[in-house]
Design goal:
This protein is an alpha/beta fold. About 25% of the residues lie in helices and about 15% in strands.
Length: about 625
């Protein structure tokens, strides 16, 4: 295995000043593989390539490695298929879990862990360097020869710089490039096809596609209440609402914030008066509905999807993916100011964030949660049918698993009221679904030495499920393995031996096919009957019969009011965790099971005895065996 000396190049070491370097004077770094985007996915890609003896250079546009993993969420967060993840992706999940803490805590520790992973592997990486235009990507036909990197130090409060401090600081030549960034700039600047909005339902025959799902709020949307001719208030879009049709608006963004009541670090003040014109909708909602969180939900650590206004300026994500860095910088600043403005509007006296999470940024997250950037249109576009197990995938390189989870893309005026449009949370997958290798490759006539592990080829519906960090590290590892095979064989990424890649990954412990076990009706507590697509629309699953955990049959057979039963104490413990001590109190006939009737009787008992926990815990103590001291 090749080992590289870890080198983290910083501006001072490079002797940087303001200005541009001449192309002939630019220092060129060479490696087998260049990873653009030091996200968790990019790190997985780099580790996989190095493990197979290939040299790697990684470029990260922001200050730290990890992206949103360490910038607001955990790699393990929303991972519902841990047992079906292997290889380096599993190692990263295990390293994350070893840090302890809740889903939002220990962000700084995650960054340190990921940085150490790269250091131990000998990966050379550069932070605060980026691509700014198509001119920074040099191609020979369909092959990327090299990329020029611009130095752009992150500004105050983590805001990306609108323009680089110095252009063409150095170049990177590589045999294979991997775009693991959230924006997909390398992919786009290499002139690969991509899209940002939502496709029409008819585009890929996706029943969850297109515009859909209005949720109304009792707030007048017009500048002059009751007068549509006066126009709509800011934050309300004017794109016509046409159910099932395409929309330029995609899933919402936000910061992942860790609010604390006492202690912590105060957020910096807004430093100016609130823009009352821009925030007229929030002000109107507060005046009419007060602290009703259905209308204005603040503060919030994520995005309150059921509320009208929460953690981000509605629809402002529209321009981010395809916008240049000047546009992104402006939007990023608006998001930070939104946090401060909302805090003022709801009367938070001194909002504070958990101390120690982002010590070099006043404990404010320096990574915007860009849930979805560009989406490549590659050799294979993943769609809702892939998530539903209605396709045959022969080139699987790993699994993904989550609901189709779309945070409200926008607000509209409809029937004289404000309505959110496009929100979806629906489980369409009976178990983990396969990711085809072709979904990581651009069209061959566009680029033949590029793999894309984050902004991969998928519809908006499919990407709304795939977009979890767990999936990204799985795809990152696959991209790194494939890149190593391409370098070794001298073939382009389209002509490599996919079977050999699969064999290599399986040997490393990667799971590329679900065995049909697990993922029953209580595999995640938030799945509700109204969010199980194959139960609501079984007609969409007729092409290929789906495999279901046996628990679904038991669930369907239950006819009580609660409709819940447990076949064993082990199943109850797995589902209820801290409440496992209740099992003998509910299992009144002592048959080692909890029937739907027993569970319903327990619910009725709780209503009659407000102190039921105290009562039952006392009974538990009474039944404990005593041990005499000797």
């Amino acid at each position: 295995m090749k080992k590289l000396l870890l080198i983290v190049l910083v501006p001072a070491a490079l002797g940087l000043g303001v200005g541009n370097a001449k192309a002939e004077d630019v220092k060129i770094h060479e490696a087998d593989v260049c990873v653009y985007g030091g996200t968790a996915s990019g790190i997985a890609a780099g580790l996989a390539a190095v493990k197979r003896g290939k040299s790697v250079i990684m470029i990260e546009p922001f200050r730290h490695l990890g992206g949103i993993a360490g910038g607001g969420i955990r790699i393990k967060q929303d991972c519902l298929y841990y047992d079906d993840i292997g290889g380096i992706a599993r190692e990263l999940h295990d390293a994350d879990m070893a840090l302890g803490g809740s889903s939002h805590m220990n962000q700084w520790k995650i960054r340190l862990m990921l940085k150490k992973k790269c250091g131990d592997a000998g990966i050379k990486y550069f932070t605060e360097h980026r691509l700014d235009s198509p001119d920074d990507v040099v191609k020979n036909g369909t092959t990327i020869e090299k990329i020029y990197l611009n130095y752009a130090p992150v500004m105050d409060e983590g805001v990306p710089a609108p323009k680089p401090e110095k252009k063409k600081v150095f170049a990177v030549k590589a045999k294979v490039f991997i775009d693991a960034s959230y924006e997909g700039d390398l992919m786009a600047f290499a002139k690969c096809d991509s899209i940002t909005g939502r496709e029409a339902r008819s585009k890929y025959n996706e029943s969850l596609g297109g515009q859909r799902g209005l949720k109304y709020f009792d707030v007048d949307p017009y500048v002059i209440p009751g007068d549509p001719k006066s126009g709509v208030l800011p934050m309300i879009t004017t794109e016509p609402y046409k159910p099932g049709e395409a929309s330029k608006y995609m899933i919402a963004y936000n910061f992942r914030l860790q609010w604390v009541g006492k202690g912590g670090t105060p957020i910096k003040p807004l430093g100016r008066e609130v823009d009352k014109k821009k925030y007229a909708l929030a002000i109107r909602a507060l005046e009419k509905h007060g602290k009703n969180r259905r209308y204005v939900h603040w503060p919030h650590n994520n995005y309150a999807r059921a509320s009208m206004i929460s953690s981000g300026p509605p629809s402002r994500q529209l321009e981010y993916p395809d916008g240049g860095w000047a546009t992104r910088s402006k939007i990023w600043r608006e998001w930070i100011d939104h946090v401060k403005t909302m805090s003022i509007l709801v009367g938070l006296k001194e909002p504070r964030l958990r101390a120690g999470e982002y010590p070099d940024n006043n404990d404010f997250p320096d990574q915007l949660y860009t849930r979805m950037g560009r989406r490549m249109i590659g050799e294979y576009v993943m769609t809702q049918q892939d998530l539903m197990h209605q396709t045959v995938i022969k080139d699987s390189i790993g699994l993904a698993y989550y609901a189709v989870d779309i945070y409200p893309p926008r607000l509209i005026a409809h029937d004289g009221k404000v309505a959110s449009e496009g929100e979806v949370f629906m489980r369409v997958s009976p178990g983990p679904y396969q990711i085809p290798y072709r979904a990581l490759t651009p069209k061959k006539d566009k680029c033949d030495n590029l793999l894309v592990s984050v902004c991969m080829s998928a519809s908006h519906v499919a990407m709304a499920s795939i977009r979890m960090e767990s999936s990204y590290v799985v795809m990152g590892e696959a991209a790194g393995v494939a890149a190593a095979h391409a370098v070794k064989s001298g073939k382009n990424v389209h002509d490599v031996d996919v079977a050999a890649i699969q064999a290599d990954m399986k040997k490393a412990g990667v799971v590329i096919e679900w065995n049909g076990k697990g993922y029953g009706p209580r595999s995640k507590k938030t799945w509700s009957a109204k969010a199980i697509w194959w139960q609501l629309h079984p007609e969409e699953y007729k092409k290929i019969p789906i495999r279901l955990d046996p628990g679904w049959t038991k669930e369907k057979a239950s006819t009580s009011k609660t409709g819940r039963s447990w076949a064993s104490q082990e199943e109850w413990n797995r589902d209820k965790g801290a409440w496992k001590w209740l099992f003998p109190h509910i299992d009144t006939n002592n048959d080692g099971k909890i029937s739907a009737e027993e569970y319903q009787a327990f619910q009725e008992y709780k209503k009659k005895d407000p102190k039921w926990q105290t009562t039952l815990r006392a009974k538990s103590q009474e039944t404990q065996p005593t041990t005499e001291k000797k």
